Amino acid sequence: MTNFWNSDSVWLFRHRPTAIIAAIVAVLIIGSAAAAPWIAIANPYDLSTFNLMDGLLPPLWQSGGQAQFVLGTDDQGRDMVSAILYGARLSLIIGLSAMAIAAVLGVGLGMSAGYFGGWLDTIVMRIADIQLALPAILTALLIDGIARGVLEQETHQSLRVVVLITAIALSLWVNFARTARASVLVERNKEYVQAAEMMGQHPVRIMSRHILPNILGPLLVIMTVDLASAILLEATLSFLGIGLPADSPSLGTLIRIGMQFLFSGEWWILWVPTLFLVMLVVAINLLGDFLREVFNPRLRR
Amino acid sequence: MSTLLHIENLGVTFPSRHGEFQALSAVDLQVQRGQIHGLVGQSGAGKSTIGAAVIGLLSAPGYVSSGQLILDGLDLRSLSPVQAHELRGDRISMIFQDPQTSLNPLMTVEQQLIETIQSHRDLDDDAARVRAVELLTETGIENASVRIKAYPHQFSGGMRQRVVIALAICTDPELIIADEPTTALDVAVQSQVLDLIKDLARRRDIGFLLITHDIGVIAQVADVVTVLRDGKLIEHGPTEQVLQNPSESYTQSLMAAVPRLDKKLARFLNPEETSELDPDISLQRAPTDRGEMAEEWLMAGVAREASSLRADNITVKFAGQRQSLWRRPEPFVALKNVSVEARAAKVLGIVGESGSGKSTLAKVITGLIKPHGGTLSLDGQQLPTGKTRSRNHPSRRWVQMVFQDPYSSLNARHRIGDILAEPLQHFSLETDATKRRQLVQATLELVGLDAGQIDRYPHQFSGGQRQRIAIARALLARPKVLLCDEPTSALDVSIQAQVLNLLKDLQAQFGLTIIFISHNLAVVRQMADDIVVLRNGQVVESGDSELFFSQPSAEYSKELLALTPSAFSS
Amino acid sequence: MTYFIAKRLLQSVFVMLAVAFIAFSLFRFVGDPVSQMTGVETSLADQARLRAELGLDDPLLQQFYRFSNNLLQGEFGYSYRTRQPVGQMIVERIPATIELGVVALVISLLVGIPAGVYTALKPNSFFSQGLLLTTLVGVSVPTFVIGIMLIFLFGVQLGWLPTFGRGGTLNLGAWETSLLTVDGWKSLVLPALTLGVYQLTLTMRLVRAEMMEVMQSDYIRFATARGISYRRLHYRHGLSNTLVPVITIIGLQFGGVVAFSIVTESVFQWPGLGLLFLESIRFVDIPVMGVYLVLIALFFVVINLIVDLLYAVIDPRLRVQKAV
Q1: Do B206 and B334 lie in a common domain?
Q2: Do B83 and B181 reside in the same domain of the chain?
Q3: Domain boundary residue among B146, B167, B188?
Q4: How far apart are CA B292 and CA B296, in angstroms?
Q5: In this predicted model, what pLDDT tens digit does every residue of B505-554 receive, in sequence order?
Q6: b/e per residue, C26-42, with b = 16+ CB within 10 A?
Q7: d(CA C86, CA A167)
Q8: Contacts 24+ apart (CB under 8 A), C127-136
Q9: ∠ CA A157-A160-A165 to the nearest 5 degrees?
Q10: Chain A residue with Cα closest to C23
């Protein structure tokens, strides 16, 4: 235990106040979002739980605020705290799933491409090239557009979350694939891999048991950075109105709704979810920066 | 001669979170004008730190914590950062190890020379250019007025190091710090560069601080030598005296560990004193119960006739760099009709410079590369090559390898116990997990490590210990042939002696057939019964090792032997 | 060298073909083109005739060949939504997006590169640390939020700048520009800043990382040991060696600018290609989506080719191989 406490990465962490704060913020936000059904006072998806009479109440500390609605309500009378917790929950579910799918797909393809080389490498990397020629937002928009064209209106509505996750995952896998491939190209020339090859071990075993544990560092950095990107991408798509609809709002949707009050006085409807989203993403990115420093000692100050 | 550099009581400290690390303490040293002062010591001895402290380029957060650095009456420690920077290049200059990376790849040699000359001398472009061409000619680059227009990557390694030297002397410095200036070079080029350094010291009266781990290099050029250990000065004096007749026991044991080119020794001697070099390992392997168990197990597997391995007419071509869409690239021939034989229970040494094809041959034998022609056979039975060797072919167990770099040959994420149990499990030599663990512990003791370290990770071991673990891994497959590719070139000389002793012992004990690949002729002489000399992918000479060292027949072999620096005067 | 360029050209053609095929598949398989073009009242016979006219019964490869050929000749088909020729719609919208993108890119490079160099050379200064933290926030704030904040501050609170549209524009032939009127510039400031800020933070962070890597290299240490002035060390040796990776970054930036122009144009109701694309997605206007896709890919491929050529100009190792 003392070994762990004194290991380089933990020591570095204890001496980086930004990393500590980021970790606390991230844990708080993710924890409260996960616990939303138990700690929120209302279910923002259930129209019957809120009352139009409570509409447009300001936060507690402004005159007219009510103790029940700490951060105020929107025009429908929806409690902002509950909306944000549920919204963050949805944003995180989508972001994490998309990132996980992109990681599995990208690492699998990237490692195989790097390890086997040849035509497999050529094909995977050419597909990655095409993917790079179409930026993430564009890919996601396109996939959403195709889903609209192919699926019936109703099916599309009910599958929106799935479509969003697919769209985001497909626009992020290239990062993983390129990083995994580059790392494998370095590792596979190392002597421990040659030793395993000489023994006649199966390529799948060599990749999973020998190479993968050695390239986890850079992959972990990409996972953090891409989780942030996935959350931003979801928010952006929802903001553009092609993500989640107003009756099941994610953070991006809440911001889009809030935009309508930009010019009137109800600032909290816009700025509270915005601040929450930015805090979440900044915290994740700070952790990503910290991990980058841990895994690349050259960047250490 | 007059004193150029005077170092007294020098201390360098690196603060870290584990406390202050004293990289150098109480070092005294003097360099005279026109003198080559050698600094030797093993890795971590602090020899490069002295050089960096003198030129004022200690890497952060290190700093000079005590003592005096005086250059011809000038106190270097009293200089402001700006003054110190003006001094660099002007009066003190430096030569780095690797000519491949020491030059800016985007600027021509001319631009880099003129820039350096003009930062210290008030010369116009034309005058600086004339000066630059003179310097290149002086450092032995022919047709300098044309070649000066080229970029660094257009020069060969040896020529590039000459350019580096030209850059270091272009401002007439009084002192040059040469940090391992020939370590990245082959022997022939090394010898030329050393001659150049010697010549510059004499002709230009430059004082050199020559930092190296290679005692042969010191013997060849240094006038005086200082031996360092753990940041402390052990011994200094005229080269001849220190190397031939060392007074300190550390220097004596260091010299005992240097492989000799002039004669073959049964083992590296003087165990009590050499053991001082690496306290973690007992050099005399104490016979333990467990060690005996491993011996018995290995003997049970080896209880058979020793094996011989032949490679006949091996040819390997690599695809060349493609230059055109239409023409096929010229293939690069790495090996051309190479035949070698490793006799049963003997050591076959394979020597050659970089690019001679020795590592390619190792990869052919282990099945990592498929040759374009030729056959491999073990005890007269033909072995499949390259990918035609199936994953479960028994030869995968018969031929085992010890790699060059002990830092990358063990998987950093696996425990030693798992790394060593892998061959037992993979080749189904022992199916019971408890017995596997016992065998692994026993083998650890057999190679001179503590069986209690079985659950540690590779990074918790030193380079020499790791190489022992790599040898244990190879043994646990019960091999017929052990292939060692430069197994000690990444190790300090004292550790090298221990690892070579271990290999000799195991070879004698188990009657192993060993193929030993190295660029170092002295090391090969200590190990080999037979020898093969490779050059540009072809066999130059082969036969009995002792005969080769006393009477080389090929012109190239004679040249190679003559140019290899020896720490011992013959 | 020629081989290198030829190889890249070939790869570009492959990428373009693949993207064209995606666009073609969109057109062919997402929804039914015939029912999109005709109303409910069209008879089945008329529909069949239209189907034959469009060649939808031909073998797939032949259809793809015809589709690509039409693209090459600038015949992009008709929008399902407006019934206008797609080519004309795109030509009308292109100037707005290019002006926005170029101004944003100039902002991001002019500020980003010097800031990256500064933070790399003085990594421990207070200012550098502050800049780094600021840019981290910059990378984390979504583009649309930056846009909203700028609108709120300069449009709503201070009322200095317009918050939507292009303002006054002038026609230079077919090119409608907002760069020649004060009003146009005023309208451009906020969108260009919005689009530029994210690219700026990215540029700065990447330049910093590359520069720090270069400054630790052996040739910089050797040049320091030769007493070359710090100014030359930083710029002549350091920055020039950082240029190769930085050019790659700039190449990628173009992609980012295109992508985020969609968001920016949506926030500021900027009448450019991004807004057009967004509308076409909402209405599943396949021909517009397809052409936009092909156009973006072409743009990206051309930028990448230019980047490859620039490598050769900067790096002699790619240019001269002859040993001396």
Answers
A1: no
A2: yes
A3: B167
A4: 6
A5: 889 888 889 999 999 999 999 999 999 999 999 999 999 999 999 999 99
A6: bbbebbebbeebeeeee
A7: 26
A8: C131/C204, C132/C205, C132/C208, C133/A18, C134/C201, C135/C200, C135/C201, C135/C204, C135/C205, C136/A282, C136/A285, C136/A286, C136/A289, C136/C201
A9: 170
A10: A142
With CB atoms and an 8 Å threshold, state whether B86 touches C227.
yes
Point out the residue among B106, B120, B154 whose CB comes nearest to the CB of C314: B106
Q: Find the helix or strand (DSSP H, E) in which B461 lies.
A: none
* Minimum-distance CB partner of B88 among C2, C227, C232: C227
Q: What single-letter DSSP state applies at residue A206? A: I
Number of domains in chain B: 3
For residue C52, the enclosing domain spans 34-75
Domain count of the fold of chain C: 2
Of C219, C224, C317, the CB nearest to B101: C219
Kindly state whether residue C271 falls inside one of the protein's structural domains.
yes
> Are the C-beta atoms of residues A256 and A241 closer than 8 Å to each other?
yes
Asked whether residue C96 falls in the same domain as residue C40, the answer is no
Length of chain A: 301
With respect to residue B408, please indicate whether it lies within any of the assigned structural domains: yes
The Cα of A272 is separated from the nearest Cα of chain B by a number of Å equal to 42
Q: Which of B184, B216, B247 is the last residue of a domain?
A: B247
Show the domain range for B397.
301-415+477-563
State how far the Cα of B54 lies from the Cα of B4, in Å rounded to an integer.
12
Does B398 share its domain with B532?
yes
3-state secondary structure labels for all residues of C199-214: HHHHHHHHHHHHHHHH
What's the pLDDT score for residue B271? Answer: 46
Do A138 and A237 contact (CB within 8 A), yes or no? no
The tokens describing A212, both together, are 């993968």
**Most trustworthy range by pLDDT among B383-392, B523-532, C60-69:** B523-532
**pLDDT tens digit string along B338-376?**
999 999 999 999 999 888 999 999 999 998 889 999 999
Using CB atoms, which chains have 3+ pairs under 8 A with C?
Answer: A, B
A206-236 tens-digit pLDDT: 999 999 999 998 899 899 989 999 999 898 8
Mind listing the domains of chain A with CATH numbers?
Answer: 7-38+71-299 (1.10.3720.10)
Q: Are residues B163 and B182 in the same domain?
A: no
B400 in the same domain as B491: yes
Residues of B in contact with C324 (CB under 8 A): 146-147, 150, 154-155
| Whether residue B238 sits in one domain with residue B158 | no
Tokens for B265? Answer: 């020794």
Which residue has tokens 């020597």? B351
Does one domain contain both C189 and C50? no
Assembly ipTM: 0.84
Between CA C152 and CA A263 the distance in angstroms is: 8
User: Which of A191, A196, A210 is closest, CB to CB, to B405?
Assistant: A191
For B130-142, the pLDDT digits (tens) are 999 999 998 888 8
Q: Do residue B201 and residue B156 come from a single domain? A: no
User: Average pLDDT over chain B, rounded to whole?
Assistant: 88
Task: Judge if B140 and B31 occupy the same domain.
Answer: no
Beta bridge partners of C115: none
Top residue of B397, B413, B459, B517 to mutate, by most chain A CBs within 10 Å, is: B413
The answer to whether residue B28 is domain-embedded is: yes
Using an 8 Å CB-CB cutoff, list chain C residues near A136: 259
Model pLDDT for residues B208-257, shown as the tens digit of each residue: 999 999 999 999 999 999 999 999 999 999 999 999 999 988 898 888 88
Contact residues of C toward B, CB < 8 A: 2-3, 6-7, 217-219, 221-230, 232, 236-237, 240-241, 314-317, 320-324
Nearest CA to B185 among B122, B77, B102, B261? B102
Residue showing tokens 């990062």: A175
Contact B154 C322 (CB under 8 A): yes
Among the ranges A169-178, A262-271, C162-171, which has the highest mean pLDDT value?
A: A169-178
For the record, the structure tokens of B159 come out as: 């020529």
Joined together, the tokens standing for residue B436 give 């596997």
